[in-house]
Amino acid sequence: MKIRNILCLFLALSYVTSFAxxxxxxxxxxxxxxxxxxxxxxxxxxxxxxxxxxxxVSPFFGYSLNRYIDVAGTICFNYVxxxxxxxxxxxxxxxxxxxxxxxxxxxxxxxxxxxxxxxNIMANRYSTAPTSxxxxxxxxxxxxxxLVGGGxxxxxFYPTQKSYYYFSVLWDxxxxxxxxxxxxxxxxxxxxxxxxxxxxxxxxxxxxR
Length: 209
Prior knowledge:
Blueprint: H1 3-26, E1 38-49, E2 52-64, E3 69-83, E4 91-108, E5 111-127, E6 140-153, E7 164-172, E8 191-199
Antiparallel strand pairs: 1-2, 1-8, 2-3, 3-4, 4-5, 5-6, 6-7, 7-8
């Protein structure tokens, strides 16, 4: 990943953290950490492109900074099947594992924008057709992915209701050659995700809207 992508992610995280602190000050919150803002959950993701299929799951654990912003760490597990664009019958299969983190910004209760970083460690298995003379063995790679996009929820009503299900679409805007979210021609393919956000210690109070 280029330095500019890492810098952009750092600036985004710095901005939302600053915004969250201002929000807390405006609402008169003196307690920095509140256990009722912790959440967990999981995501099922699918992506399809030119000769590529990606299926995965991503459990996560995070914290709501305020009613607008959620941050979380995640572990990603993916399986990718990709047919070679130039050799008929050859196929690459990847088992992918890696850590990541995301920020979700909620301008409204039911929609959000998301930025997510993933470090993908890939174990590859390349199978060839009986008539193929091409063989690259079973190399292993790693790749940094920077995913951006947005999604829809059934409603995050902070602080009275912080559990919700969601649907999102993301794209990898990074330039990693071996990104699992790009096709044979290194074009980013849409990543379709759905999951559930579970509040660990549901807080109750007057809804502020």
